[in-house]
Specification:
single chain; 163 residues; 3-stranded parallel sheet
């Protein structure tokens, strides 16, 4: 069984972690807190998280187990970084940690395109296109600025014609 303990570094939370570690059926405990635990225990991982940050809590709880392909890993990372490896542990998929680490190492320092290079009016369309281009780049279907521009032209046109 997997557990997520909020406040697991505090007095009561750490006592709960100690109790759960002693249970045979405990597989993993994710401690979510604003500070690291004083001592690390077997079967535990830590995620720096303030429970008052609704967005961060939602991301942790709503993450879905990704497939092993680069596109799924990219989507998972977008939803869970910088805690993607901890989220994998929480989801019971630690075997995908190497794929996340590889994606981190291979992530380019700069995007292929910036929004002002698309030739579109400012708006959410630019963000959508840039996110799609980043996903295609992670999946290996786009590698150059020219390919990214072609993708943007093709997909922005489809949106305008449908719109």
């Amino acid at each position: 069984m997997r557990y997520l303990i909020t406040g697991g570094s505090g007095y009561i939370g750490s006592r709960l972690v100690s109790h759960l570690i002693g249970r045979e059926q405990t597989d993993e405990i994710v401690i979510a807190d604003v500070r690291e635990p004083r001592d690390w225990r077997p079967k535990t991982s830590f995620r720096r998280l303030d429970v008052r940050d609704k967005h961060a809590v939602d991301e942790l709880l709503q993450a879905e187990r990704p497939e092993a392909d680069p596109r799924s890993i990219h989507r998972f990372r977008r939803a869970t970084e910088p805690w993607a490896v901890d989220a994998l542990a929480f989801l019971g998929a630690p075997e995908l940690s190497d794929a996340v680490e590889e994606a981190r190492r291979n992530q380019p320092a700069e995007p292929l395109l910036r929004g002002d290079e698309l030739g579109l009016p400012a708006g959410p369309e630019i963000g959508r296109l840039l996110a799609e281009i980043a996903e295609e780049q992670a999946a290996g279907t786009i590698a150059t600025k020219e390919e990214a521009l072609e993708y943007a032209r093709r997909n922005a046109r489809a949106v305008r014609e449908d719109g």
